[in-house]
């Protein structure tokens, strides 16, 4: 199969979509049509390639667009968007997400539906075009190449559908869009699950392997990527359908580790899967290519760039995007007096500190030559200001230096350890000192050639290890689970560290398993899903969050604007 460089091709997607409206007949004697079809749009191999790629850019955007990231993280025990002295109150919407008190009238309940179905529609439209090609040789293509493109689009659509199933359960299966004027009916979660499973299984043998694609593998759905989606589907099957599929999940995980669907490997450094060259990392099973000059959605304000405090770009030496705005921070583990909260859930920074030799605990610092250390912004952040003088990061609400702490309250200019009179710590009473900020993807300085060059690693090989570990743990094999977790965890600690799990797995409990998922996959947009699978999303308590009255908030309501435009849809139970 001739390679397709997604990184270069996605920069032309906007142009290709414009072509959809303009390319057609150049002979004025020809019959005019009221819409463009594969018969008059697809003229060359490049046309087919552009058609194939149309859905990929939108799908990349959907990792944070449509509030998908916000809802996965802010509804969990991991991330918060508190009211910082009037900033980020936004009508209380983030508080409703935190407290699970959303309603169908909240716009964010419709946003993921629209965003994800936008991708489904684009993928389906392109599928219909490609499936309509009867003679691929006319486009300088083989049937195997065409079949591979079709398989990738079906896999991309399956990824979007899994997320729709996860958000809403009662979804619409879209297999045709051309000529359609109304939406289809909802299907049961079991039917949606079966459809997605079938799509992936049928696509699998026609997909390339990561090795067959070589340097152009990033952004392409491979056999390893499709199997990883089946792993996600089976791991959460009990939640989605009521049927346990952990054995099927374990089988596929082991086959992935054994190399049946392509050769992958874990990185030896914790930060390597997120670094500027991660597009070629053997740990990247599926990633969306990114670059400073083209697309970099994970660095958008809807995701990691606003997971930074004010003036953090000055601390990094990265000023191309202007200033940051602290929308997201980690939920606190300590009250305003520095005492650890008693609840078992949440407290993400405390969970990292449970193993104090974790190298990720270091304060994030750029080291030069496209290198960094540490994963968190905490304490004072010093830098050299535009006048060439030493300075410290300050906030929006006062001239004082900010001290970032694992606490939420009105600390203002109080020095570290100084008691404050106001003891309230909740979503409505924060300041710009409140919270620790994670930095998972690097922000290298503006003069670094590799700034904002990371691919977004949607699926990492580490996920396969953790999924298999969970399956083994649930089957009673704690030793097997510990070995798998340690295979990944060892890169987070010095050689010979006592922080690795004991070989017998005796330290593993339900809570420790969930905590470890949180440490390894912090702010990767999956925390809500993991909490639901472990049965604590509705029943658990964490900072400023009591248990829900029932479990109907396990899924989101279909937004009222969606229902208004699609009267055939029925609202989810409990709303």
From TrEMBL:
The keyword Lyase does not apply. It holds the Pfam family SusD_RagB. This is RagB/SusD domain-containing protein. InterPro entries: SusD_RagB_dom (IPR012944), TPR-like_helical_dom_sf (IPR011990). Belongs to the SusD family. PROSITE patterns: PROKAR_LIPOPROTEIN. Residues 419-575 form the RagB/SusD domain. Keywords: Cell outer membrane, Membrane, Signal. It is found in: Cell outer membrane. The keyword Methyltransferase does not apply.
